[in-house]
From TrEMBL:
InterPro entries: Aminotrans_3, PyrdxlP-dep_Trfase, PyrdxlP-dep_Trfase_major, PyrdxlP-dep_Trfase_small. The keyword NADP does not apply. CDD domains: OAT_like (cd00610). GO terms for molecular function: transaminase activity. Transmembrane segments: none annotated. The keyword Transferase applies. This is Aspartate aminotransferase family protein.
């Protein structure tokens, strides 16, 4: 065993050495080919090995790769912020650049609290979220996350934030059935607010479609309308965490566009750079920025690499490539094909309990009993086995379990790059069927 090296996800596991990638495919050093059926961690949206992005990065690196944000601004960062203002809904016109989705959601948390402080309201310091959810691995982001497995080791360090049940119809946490339930899960949001005291809650953070913690959980119709009404009633800001769902993944530029929501803050990551460089963003509305501008004038956060020109140039180039290749539209069309193929597996195999999703963010939930939706016992680790068998067969899919209790659930995410073709969708389904 090596005595030095990188700390791997599982310390002594044998990970293949990557050689290169092209489109939806990855190749290891032995020449084995994998379909990147999860775009890594739902990130490689435009596929691998795109020359245009490498060229844009080379050009920018030759000009200047790094400047510190309090010394200079840069053309690529300014251009990227303008591009985001153009495509985000409502008055989300101001971007704070960071390096990871976790930093983006923590920045959103800080901006929301600061917005009230600037107006002399100092009690609104808590963030309401949902259980099940995932908003990042750093302590503030984890405090907002309803993800048992990722929290339990550090629970003593996490903030005591309130949470409402997730709109998870297939395994309803309230044991209800839609539409007879009257959207009680949204109603629970109001109960959580009243219990905590609305004067203590700055914002509600939500993944429009719940990803890593539950496997592409899409809320039922009417849910977000009710949520918005409740948040407005109690002067609670809304933070749409689009780190996974944003940048075309679900067949619209942002998942909230499926419901016409205009949040106060939006977070982006993953597909923003499509994995070509670390980059994430907290996009903030005019209304919030105007309050800070009238007050301290300083958004109190920042990182050494925030808004660095090299990453910004890569992201601009990714967005231009997406435009030229019509990738948002392709995500919608191929997503329908993928979902239909997965639904055939749901019909064919009793242990495929539920297939769901939008665009190219699809979830597949394995169960022991499809009639009662009973999960397999944790000790069987069925989801992990499926992921491992697929990997051996050259198909990469992504775990989405551990959120509810930490010891349940066998959901996986299937989320290939948005450049996938019809033929490749069938190839993916065929391997999964095997
Ligand atoms: N928010 C959501 C919705 C995510 O899915 C993730 C990562 O999976 C994060 C935040 C955290 O992003 P990162 O891993 O880049 O810190």
């Amino acid at each position: 065993m090596d005595k030095t090296g990188i700390i791997k996800p599982v310390l002594d596991a044998n990970y293949p050495m990557i050689s290169h990638g092209k489109g939806i495919y990855l190749y290891d050093e032995n020449g084995k080919r994998y379909i990147d059926g999860s775009s890594g961690a739902v990130t490689a949206n435009i596929g691998h090995g795109v020359d245009e992005i490498a060229d844009a990065m080379h050009e920018q690196a030759m000009q200047v790769a790094f400047v510190y944000r309090s010394h200079f601004t840069s053309l690529p960062a300014e251009k990227l912020a303008k591009k985001l203002a153009r495509i985000t809904p409502g008055d989300l016109n101001w971007t704070f650049f960071v390096n990871s989705g976790s930093e983006a959601t923590e920045t959103a948390l800080k901006v929301a609290i600061q917005y009230f402080q600037e107006q002399g309201i100092h009690t609104k310091t808590k963030i309401l979220s949902r259980w099940t959810s995932y908003h990042g691995i750093t302590l503030g982001a984890l405090s907002m996350s309803g993800h048992h497995k990722r929290r339990e080791r550090f629970s003593a360090l996490l903030e005591d934030f309130p949470a409402a049940p997730a709109p998870y119809c297939y395994q309803c946490p309230l044991k209800n059935t839609y539409p007879g339930c009257g959207l009680e899960c949204a109603g629970e949001l109001e109960r959580a607010i009243e219990q905590e005291g609305p004067e203590n809650i700055a914002a509600f953070i939500f993944e429009p479609i719940i990803g890593a913690a539950g496997g592409a959980i899409v809320p039922p119709p009417g849910y977000y309308e009710k949520v918005k009404e409740i948040c407005d009633k109690y002067q609670i800001l809304t933070i749409a965490d689009e780190v996974m769902t944003g940048m075309g993944r679900t067949g619209k530029m942002f998942a909230i566009d499926h419901w016409g929501i205009e949040p106060d803050i939006m977070t982006l990551g993953k597909g923003l750079s499509a994995g070509y460089t670390p980059m994430a963003a907290t996009v903030v509305s005019d209304r919030i920025i105007n309050v800070i501008r009238k007050g301290s004038k300083v958004v109190m956060s920042g990182h050494t690499f925030s808004a660095n020109p090299l990453s910004a140039a890569a992201c601009c180039s990714v967005m231009e490539y997406m435009d030229q290749q019509n990738l948002v539209q392709n995500a919608g069309e191929q997503g329908e094909r993928l979902l239909n193929g997965l639904k055939e597996l749901e019909q064919k195999y009793p242990f495929v309990g539920n297939v769901r999703g939008k665009g190219l963010l699809c979830g597949l939930e394995l169960v022991n009993d499809a009639v009662n939706h009973t999960p397999f016992s944790f000790i069987h680790r069925v989801g992990e086995k499926l992921i491992s068998i697929c990997f051996d067969k050259g198909l990469i899919i992504y775990p989405a379990f551990g959120g509810v209790t930490g010891y349940e659930g066998d959901s996986v995410l299937i989320s290939p790059p948005l450049v996938i073709t019809s033929f490749q969708v069938y190839e993916l389904i065929r391997i999964l069927d095997e």
